[in-house]
Amino acid sequence: MAVLRRAAALAVAGAVLLGGGPALADDVRAGQQPVLDTLALPEAWRTSKGEGVLVAVLDSGVDPHHRDLDGSVTVGEDFTEGANPPGVAPRRLHGTYMASLIAGHGHGPGGRRGVIGVAPRAGLLSVRVILEDEEPGFRDFNSAERFEDVVARGIRYAVDQGAHVINMSISKELATREERSAIRYAISKGVVLVAAAGNDGARRPGHAASAPYSYPAAFPGVVSVGATDRRLRRATFSNWNSSVLVSAPGVDIMGAGPGDEYWVGRGTSQATALVSGVAALIKAKFPEMSPALVAQAMTASATDRPPGGYDTGTGFGVVNAARALTEAARLAGHTERARGRQAQDPSAPVGGGSAGPIRVVVRDQTRVTVYGTIAVAAGTGALASLMLIYVLVRRVRRAQGPQDA
User: For a tag site, which of 106, 111, 216, 267 has the least CB within 10 Å?
Assistant: First the structure.
């Protein structure tokens, strides 16, 4: 079984506890400001704050009583049950941290203290699919066959509970057929899946072309997120490969921890949570928008785009919430969701024939006419050339006359 990991580190050399007093909570909001500005959230919040959207956090569990999350969290299924010894409570460090970045609403007058998430009015569904490294059952969880498909089961559960976005700040080296099938199920229900590209980038020696692929991020249809540093360049730890679609800040990110604590950390986990929040803003404003178009809105509007428009480090660039909402408004009248037998089953081999013939749903008549005219003209020109060659050959033969053997 591939080891399921948190795609984040709690710095420095583990975790930095900032504490829970009101003054420190104010410091947290000030520490968040660079990220809020990078994502253009003050502008985006004039259009959407994520109201009515449910974001499932597939992680180590979320503390529903943290003052910056109170009232926003529904505690769902624990698919790791039985891994820890009886009586051991989940620590919920990583999951609480990610949840706060997605939908923290702060506390105090006007919610101006503590952590503010990207989509502060969104709801959160906690689905436990990993253990913290420090939990006693961690080794058993990552080796026992009965936990092989916890991510697939978590995805299906979240979809059936009405999630609109699924955040997966987790990574593993190997994919399973059940995960592919669960992802297809989620996409067929219009659910946006966002996952971490992974933190193995700094471990690649020399000038390798790419860092390892990470799952579920590398599955088709999942928004794979890389992390950027303070200069909005690829963070040294962030995996770079062709699965990376977009990126977001992932260094020195302020967030919440269980028991009204606050943390600062780094990783593609944090970047993923921020992108999930942006997806929630879009789904709140355009609830019927397909996952493909939500991804299109984020990629087309990204800032700090690399030369050429794309690279394997930061994808199409850094997500910008305000611009993504504007692009989503432009795309809102379109659809890019295949249905029925037209849709390729991701759990089946490519080219297996299961998809059937492709039916054209929308025909651009102007382009059809233009390309048709070009094709007719090209065909006429080719026929004329053949006729000319034929005539010239006959003339040459007549001029030569009969030849003696």
Answer: 111
pLDDT tens by residue, 219-229? 999 999 999 99
The residues annotated as belonging to the active site are 59, 94, 269
CA distances from 318 to 67, 247, 267 (A): 30, 5, 15
pLDDT digits (tens, 9 = 90+) for 304-333: 999 999 999 999 999 999 999 999 999 998
- Compute the radius of gyration of the chain from its Cα atoms: 26
CB atoms within 10 A of CB 393: 10
Cα–Cα dist 26/14, whole Å: 23
pTM, rounded to two decimals: 0.81
Distance CA 40, CA 28 (A): 18
CA distance 16 to 27: 14
Question: Is the bond leading into 216 cis (omega within 30 degrees of zero)?
Answer: yes
User: Pairing state of beta strands 113-116 and 123-128?
Assistant: unpaired
